[in-house]
Amino acid sequence: MAAGWRPSPGWMVRGAGRGVGGEGPPTAFLRYPPTMPPNDDAFSLLQRARELRRMQTAAEKLLWEHLRARRLDGLKFRRQVPLLGHIADFYCHELALVVEVDGEVHSTAEQRAHDENRDADLAAHGLTVLRFSNRQVLGEIETVKATLRAWLKR
Predict the structure, then answer these.
(1) pTM value?
(2) Could you tell me the end-to-end alpha-carbon distance of the chain, in angstroms, rounded to an integer?
């Protein structure tokens, strides 16, 4: 091995980054072995989260404008985040807080039961879920923000 040789960064492929004269050993530095495909469920959940970021509802857009860039008491929120097999509308890691904005579809008994199961699953992992309706977010954004701030202070 040549003096001063260091391995290439993790994204490099076999043979790349051997040094100026190619003096380093031809080793593979892949983050994931090529024989192990990514988990299809996790990959599809990530793809769905990306789609949801592009297709936000008016209520989600409005709330995001008030949460993004640490605008709510300096807390970092992320949107459409895959968590434990679910996609959270908004998530603050510092507080283990999930904020959901529910549209009309969440008013059906079947969807309410699904939401309760989902909330219980997230709570079992130490996450708190706060839910607001589209109507609340669009018509009373300051009340929604006040509710979030009140939760922060408890």
Answers:
(1) 0.72
(2) 59
